[in-house]
Amino acid sequence: MPVTTMDLKLIKMLTDHYWQKSDNVIDKISFKGRTFFNKYERVDRTLTQAVINQHLKGELTVAHSLINKMNKVENIVIDYNGRDPERFYHKTQLLLREEGFINFTAFTSKTEGHLHVYIHKGHTTLQEAYQLGKIISLKLAAKQPKQWRMFPSDELPPEYNILNLPYEVFAKERGASWSKHM
Question: What is 5-173's CATH superfamily?
Fold first, then answer.
């Protein structure tokens, strides 16, 4: 089902700026001994519904930042890049419930079979988000071949802790209020 404004509100995206993909390399970033070639340019304007609609129509590619100015995140995201999204989501959903995460949404990305699973954690410090992401990834890796990346990641520069806006909702999970990770 197509992504709605309400679905995007659940992500609690930062809307004071956005990132627009270019065909050319915008800048070269050195980070932890590696060089990254960035094709996304930061646009310091409000992410409006008009821009989101252009993205959904394929007129431009827009991404949003995961880390806010105060080094907090609202979501921990699993970027699945495999070939069997149904199976991956099923196993991930079971693991997340078992770990006490009750609010998460899976969105399809532009590439068929790829998913972004947003775990709606709420105002979390960056260090805690890195830690939780690593724990979730390790537990998922114990059950299936690793075909994903976790965001935010301390392995990437801040300019790379962004994700393209989702296109469609794959599945939603909203649970009970007694969860240990509320």
Answer: HP0184-like (3.90.920.20)
User: What pairs with residue 27 in β-bridges?
Assistant: 38
- Per-residue pLDDT tens for 54-84? 999 999 999 999 999 999 999 999 999 998 9
Angstrom distance (rounded) from CA 158 to CA 152? 9
d(CA 67, CA 28): 20
Transcribe 19-60 into DSSP letters: EEE-SS--EEEEETTEEEEE-EEEE-S---HHHHHHHHTTSS
| Whether this model's pTM surpasses 0.70 | yes
Which of 106, 120, 163 is closest to 10 using CA atoms?
120
* Triad 7, 163, 30: Cα angle to 5°: 160
Burial 59-91 (b: 16+ CB within 10 A, else e): eebbbbbbbeeeeebbbbbbbbeeeebeebbee
Q: Beta-carbon neighbour count of residue 8 at 10 Å?
A: 19
The secondary element (H helix, E strand) that includes residue 107 is strand 104-108
Amino acid identity for residue 170 in this structure: F
